[in-house]
Amino acid sequence: xxxxxxxRSPATEPDSPLARVLRQPFIxxxxxxxxxxGWTPSTLPRTTTWTFDYNARLTQRAEALGFDLVFGLxxxxxxxxxxxxxxxxxISLDSFMATAALAACTERILLISTLHILYxxxxxxxxxxxxxxxxxxxxxRWGINVVTGYAEREPLMFGMKxxxxxxxxxxxxxxxxxxxxxxxxDRNLTVDGPHWAMxxxxxxxxxxxxxxxxxxxxxxxxxxxxAARHSDLxxxxxxxxxxxxxxxxxxxxHIANIRATxxxxxxxxxxxxxxxxxxxxxxxxxxxxxxAIEAAADVEAVENFAEHGRRGxxxxxxxxxxxxxxxxxxxxxxxxxxxxxxxxxxxxxxxIDGVQVTFYDFAPDLEHFAEKVLPLLYEAGLRIPEDRLTAxxxxx
Length: 396
Known about the structure:
Layout: H1 17-22, E1 27-31, H2 52-64, E2 69-71, H3 95-101, E3 110-116, H4 124-138, E4 142-147, H5 165-184, E5 189-191, E6 198-201, E7 213-217, H6 221-230, E8 233-236, H7 244-264, E9 270-273, E10 275-279, H8 283-295, H9 299-311, E11 331-335, H10 337-350, E12 354-357, H11 362-379
Parallel strand pairs: 1-2, 1-12, 2-3, 3-4, 4-7, 7-8, 8-9, 9-12, 10-11
Antiparallel strand pairs: 5-6
């Protein structure tokens, strides 16, 4: 029996945590540094660390500040990481475990775990059960960022050969369709394949709001079509690289294409982008901060990490410019608080629905953002106080 009844999106449930987030004019997330070195292979002193306690404190602070979500990446680095003096990203927490564990020390914020669903022995029944359990533990706040694995060397750790780009998305499509069936059906599911067979499979408890939040990152046609079929949020990059003016010129057409693809699927897919925010009280101070980060760059790690990207087949990073590459992130916002807000307003005007920000020195930079930038976001209408959200319609 191969029922195709899909689990409804939590976005359609007015009381769900995701629906509440989508009422904000502009989604605000924090991209956690659960990997050593965060996003920046630099030796400039900082507090940022991969440890769970540090990331838990960041998450609790972000929640107190009204952030909508936190997010962790997943990677499989070999001994020495990406090399250099810093052994960049040699150490990292598992995103699935670490982000899920944050449910125990938070109450409101969405928690998004990244998982390579095609690596190793993962089966849809495993993840459907784990996901339903986490959905109940978090009261509907947990979600999965579905990734297929673009890196050349990562599958080798699992005794696998790299799967061709579009074939990976075909497999992921089947995997997620099975998840949605298992989360929705009130009877056993039996399928012969393709890829994952199951006989009399059944998962309880059922998720509280239809299914957990589904996310993916996409830059290719196959990735965008996957997002349109399955995801609530899609993380995108700037097609023209990491500098703001280039991004502002290229994003409108890119986002229009994503929305058109989603519309064909009857989807209200929302787009998010990951800016590295380097903010100080004045533009001159912010530029000086950026320059100090770059001056202390771990050059070997920068080059090795760039080569890692070049050897993969991700479409999202193909046009990242060399300029300021040591800074990290897929978009660089550098300036005073007023300039940061102006940049976010311009990003919204391109069609971007929100950001998951990163910082160089996370704890103090987050506090500066909270004190100097966040009030301006409310003044600019990008954010609405929590107690007014219930009367505010969801953003288009």
